[in-house]
Input
Amino acid sequence: MLKSKQLLQQFSKEYAKFTPNNFKLKRALVVTKLSRYEFEQLRHPELSPDQLQQKLRDRGTDVEMVLYLHKVHKDFERRVVQSFQDVGCEVKLSSRSSLSKDVMSWADVIVPVGGDGTFLLSAGRASPLFALSQQKTPIVGFNSDPLHSEGRLMLPKHYSDNPADAVSRIKSGDFKWMHRSRVRTTMLGSNGKIPESTDLFRHTEVKMEQVTTAPEMLDQDMAYKYKAKMKRILPYLALNEVFIGEHLSARVSHLQLVLDHQDVVNKTKCSGLCVSTGTGSTSWHTSINRITSRDVDDLLCSLPNSSSEDVKLMRRNAEEIAQRYNQGLLFAPDDPRLCYSIREQICVGVWPSPKTFKERDFVQTVFVKSHCIDANLVIDGSISFPFNDGAKALLEVHPEDALLTIALD
Output
């Protein structure tokens, strides 16, 4: 961990000259979310607006609310665009489908407007592995509808009321840089091929663009340890998490894990594996591991002295205990460690193996081998790769992969 922190500090020093005061904002790329209404339009391109609205009503959809939320987002999007133009910026708009490495490299700043999903999509394309460039393009996100979206990755919600204030501060250098660690995924195998990926955001079997990253030979020790010859880095970095599990959620996922290149092979049957960053610790990681006040109360009631005054006092504070526990699940966005979580691990008979295998822990690296039937490796809930029996992947954090974001208080 110390070595990783030193590397991150060294990496930060290299960008010391890229201070907020030296940041030159001339070109802004605004990435727009796909609203529910736009999604339905893409699903039914043959329908006129009136026909589409009638189809949605027949389905029981609140069409007026769908149209209202679409208008809220588009109105806010125009305000953000105007705010950048007012400070002399050239602005381009990009949708999910038109977000390419060429338009990303044009921008001085990438501005997702929407919710966390739009931010994660933009971050995935801001990967130097995707762009085949070492250019660091910062990201700053605006929450277009804070009443209906938490937007943890976006600027504080008060900037949704006044985006011009945020843009003015960015233009003048009145902000701070934040480096967010990301997960690099390397596929191991015999030929270095990358399986085709699927864009889950479009809710269709649309293949992602295949970016060329060269296969490399594994060194002798790694080749022997993991029974593979070649490695190939996936072009997408995970800002929140990498999930591995069966496509059908009702089917058990059978996985083998090696933690921190140790000599122990951990075997588990579960509902999937989630490997999270500090940024992702507020998201799926917490959802998997959080406890409720009911959990605390049930645990206290199971104690032999459950009728004692001390236990009764703790039961009255069950909500506070649960909140403190859940808060402890979070870790810093720039933390160089990963935290893996095994979902619903089977703990009967011979499983897991060995019995000392923890269902959650901090690590530097995770090697995963699949014994699944129809599984996927999913990056930030949006980009999916097949990960079936025999597939192997190494998950790790590299300081140079950190996402550069703009932070305002």
